[in-house]
Amino acid sequence: MAESTLRTEELTINMGPQHPSTHGVLRVELLTDGEIIKGAYPDIGYLHRCFEKHSETREYIQVIPFADRMDYLAAMNMELGYCLALEKLMDLEIPDRAQHLRVVVAELNRIASHLLAFGTYSIDLGAFTPFLYAFRDRERILNIFEEISGARLLYNYIRPGGVLNDFSKNIEEKISEFCKYFIPQLDEMNDLLSGNSIFVQRTCDIGVISKDMAVSYGLSGPNLRGSGIRWDLRKSQPYCGYEKYDFDVCVGEAEKGTLGDCWNRYYVRMKEMYQSVRIIEQALTQLEKGAHTARAPKTIKVEGEVYYHTECPRGALGYHLIGDGSKRPYRVKAKSPCFISISTLDEMCSGMMLADIVAYLGSIDIVLGEVDR
Amino acid sequence: MKSYFKNIFEAISTVSTGMKITMRTFLKTNGLLKKKLNGYDYGTGHVTISYPEVKDDLPLNSRNRLFNHVEGCISCNQCAVICPVDCIEIESRKKTDDEDSSAKTPPEFKSKPLKLKLLKFDIDEALCCFCGLCTEVCPTVCLVHTPEFEYSKYDRDKLNYDYLNFNDDNPFPKA
Q1: In this predicted model, what pLDDT tens digit does every residue of A246-299 receive, in sequence order?
Q2: Is the Cα torsion angle B125, B130, B134, B138 positive or negative in sign?
Q3: How many other C-beta atoms lie within 10 A of the C-beta of residue B140?
Q4: Fewer CB in 10 Å around end: N or C, chain B?
Q5: Which residues does A337 contact at the CB level (< 8 Å), separation at least 6?
């Protein structure tokens, strides 16, 4: 009797753009049926800063600060991709030392970025303590970066031909000291959260991206590897001398839950931090005396077209650069990994419980600055 | 039934693992625990500072507020050209006959000839993106980023610094 008279309807609710767990300014329109999500439509563009169009009115070197601001949590990796693309157009030979310096800063930034992902993910799921541990160690990396480049987040450090300035002996020591310090801390963080029963139950078997789906969407980075696909541009298409380093590509192995769920994506990031430390240690021992930058012309004028992609903390970031022989780029197009991750939202979240969308959003680790550009 | 109790046991044991780490960090931070446990150096002491009273030492090369030593500026306009956000405004004119055309910048600014008279050197710090490109191209190194970062103002116009008549409430630290 009661069933026939009770009117039910689907309810549309807004998540964001100020929601703390959307990691930036993402608005998701959720169509809900009680506690079940029927559809999730991401509304992006709140952080659109016209980076690509603006770059066309700037000289090549002036684009680097804009590239920084795309993924502000891994600015070194963003610059690196742009500079590598530009160098490929310029046919510039990079000195050995510069290559190693670039690898060190890129991997340090990867650790910083993954630490932030780890910390904010725990906060999204209601665990406050790991966040403090993650930020304590991220702070050390930022202090190192501040000493190297002068800035804490937006470095403008990697330049066409090499890097802005060389490491001092002091900084080399500081970085190797950090590596020694960091491994036990990482073990500790791992103990703190990875096995925690509450955390495991909120993340295991949630948002399972199958292998086929990951490939068909074109996911990359930890999100792809979390689904068990061994694909890392550092290994498969090495740049910057990554082929000289001995490291493993971390993939999800379903230690808990099913392959491709939130927990596995999270755990791939934890494992990657260990590998990054390994790479940094190797790069520091291989550092030899030499020039930190090649002789690059003061005003860069290039002609041609290039696509270059690098492995950033959030996936494969590609730059499509077209030069028309003038000192300004004709077109700078960035292919963002986060944009692809966010496009899985509707398919993955339909049928999910309302509380799980936060777990899913945190596990794909998006940065809206890069999505909107 | 068996799995019910197993679940409870698992929840308690895994949560207590985290609690143990928290407790050890707490004790270590407060100097109550000295030794290392399981090879971990639990806790690292206090990591925060009480900011306005205690200030962190920023490295000398940290990029914060710009400062131009106008006596060393040769009005070459390179900084204004390279600025990605066009926040530097420079005006200059040729020197007239009754002005000393053989003047040079002070030796700390590389003793370059001062051919032009600087009329205006404004930087809108509200626009500045702190990329550091302008300080790199400066031929006399008179335009520098300083470690000074506390310069917020109630009025946005006050962030437009006129370095030819520079006076600020806070005396500027020598860079």
Answers
A1: 888 888 888 888 888 889 989 999 999 999 999 998 988 888 888 888 887 778
A2: positive
A3: 19
A4: N
A5: A219, A220, A221, A223, A312, A314, A315, A316, A317, A370
Peptide bond just before A17 cis, omega within 30 deg = yes
Among chain B residues, CA nearest to A133: B43
> E strands along chain B, which residues?
66-68, 88-94, 116-124, 143-145, 160-162
Which residue reads 């809108």 in tokens?
B124
How is domain A47-372 classified at the architecture level of CATH? Answer: Orthogonal Bundle (1.10)
Contacts of A62 in chain B (CB under 8 A): 82-84, 133
Our CA-based measurement puts residue A298 at a distance from the nearest CA of chain B, in whole angstroms, of 10
Count CB-CB contacts under 10 A for residue B68.
24
DSSP characters over A71-107: STTSHHHHHHHHHHHHHHHHTPPPPHHHHHHHHHHHH
The tokens describing A85, both together, are 């693309």
- The answer to whether residue B37 scores a pLDDT higher than 60 is no
End-to-end C-alpha distance for chain A, whole angstroms: 55
The chain-wide mean pLDDT, for chain B, equals: 79
Contacts of A68 in chain B (CB under 8 A): 131
Cα–Cα dist A223/A204, whole Å:
15
Model ipTM value: 0.81
- Only one residue has tokens 């990875």, namely A194
pLDDT digits (tens, 9 = 90+) for A194-204: 888 888 888 88
Domain range annotation of chain A: 47-372
Range list of β-strands (E), B34-170: 66-68, 88-94, 116-124, 143-145, 160-162
